[in-house]
Amino acid sequence: MSDSSIDSLREQFGRELASAASEADLRAIRDRYLSRKGGLLSALLKALGTAAASERPRLGQLANTLKKEIEQQLDERIAAAASTRAPRGAVDITLPGRRPAVGHSHPLSILRERIESIFTRMGFLVIEGPELEDDYHNFEALNMPPEHPARDMQDTLYLSSPMRSSAGSPATLLRTHTSGMQIRYMETHEPPVRLIAPGRVYRRDNLDLTHTPMFTQVEGLVVGEHVALSDLKGTLDVFVRELFGQERKVRFRPSFFPYTEPSAEVDISCAACGGNGCGMCKRTGWIEILGSGMVHPAVFESVGYDPEKYTGFAFGMGIERIALLKWGVEDIRLFYENDLRFLEQFPQ
């Protein structure tokens, strides 16, 4: 140990202290110089025993002075660095902002709002009603008495016996369509009538690629004097082209529904093949999207309308089926599995 070794350590410490850029750097320098085990100052003091006996007191005093200088300078720099440290939990306003995740409407809700928008622009009223329905409004008033075979097509979820009780009250069920709202509205309103009734409906279907025991329907009804089949065709033609695109072709195909006569199913040209025929449209070039027809006179009689004076048309569609066709989705279950990777793909 000598004067030169003390001066050399002082100069080395000065260079390292000047280059320290953070509080962590300062603490690392403290450990390197002042640590009791392996510290540079500890090693210097241990080397004091190699100096001449007459030099030891003076060299020891110089070494202790250097130690105090190092401790003082480090304490001042660490205290200064700590004073600028952000408090725990503080926000660094210099960092770029994080865009929060924002939710959006479910694709089925988007499509329902789109359908409602199209019909309301054509003057239709949007109504909603109970999902728990009685047998009369769900079936009988729609020309489906207890023995009618069309009831089997609905595969109904009854909450009470399908047979009328001894008191004569109708059975209770989860509605199989929203057509019951047409009856409820006509019971309390005189023509003219122009409405759609969207809502959830229930049937005993197994969950698979194209079926689900709960789905969403939109039923429509127009009643007035001189309402003709041409009005039905014109209305649905405008609706289909507005929803699927002006290039889509529309055709009406004869069918049967107990509450309409005549009845028709509405097909649109297949988007996948342009109407030329493919696997999606079963080589026909057409895909069925909804049912429709002129309101049966028996329905008017059940609500007190004069079938000799008033005519009307009705139609109904499943929103899930429309969604499958509009967006090319192959599995209806995807709409109910809450997978954000799927749900976030749809336009708002």
What does this structure look like?
- By secondary structure, this protein is of the alpha+beta class.
- The chain folds into 2 domains: 3-83; 107-343, 2-Layer Sandwich (BirA Bifunctional Protein, domain 2).
- Helices cover 38% and strands 19% of the residues.
- The strands form 2 sheets. It has a 7-stranded mixed sheet, sandwiched between helices. A 3-stranded antiparallel sheet has the order 2-4-3.
- The longest helix has 28 residues, at 56-83.
- It is rod-shaped.
- The mean pLDDT is 88.
Category from helices, strands and their pairing:
alpha+beta
Q: Tell me how many strands there are.
A: 10
Strand content: 15-25%
Stretches with pLDDT under 50, minimum 5 residues: none
Question: In the CATH hierarchy, what is the class of the largest domain?
Answer: Alpha Beta
CATH topology tier name of the largest domain: BirA Bifunctional Protein, domain 2
Main-sheet strand order equals 1-5-6-10-9-8-7
Termini gap: 79 Å
CATH architect. name of the largest domain: 2-Layer Sandwich
Task: Tell me the helix content.
Answer: 25-40%
Give Rg in angstroms.
Answer: 41 Å
What are the salient characteristics of this protein?
348 residues; 2 domains; 12 helices; rod-shaped; 38% helix; BirA Bifunctional Protein, domain 2; alpha+beta; seven-stranded mixed beta sheet; three-stranded antiparallel beta sheet
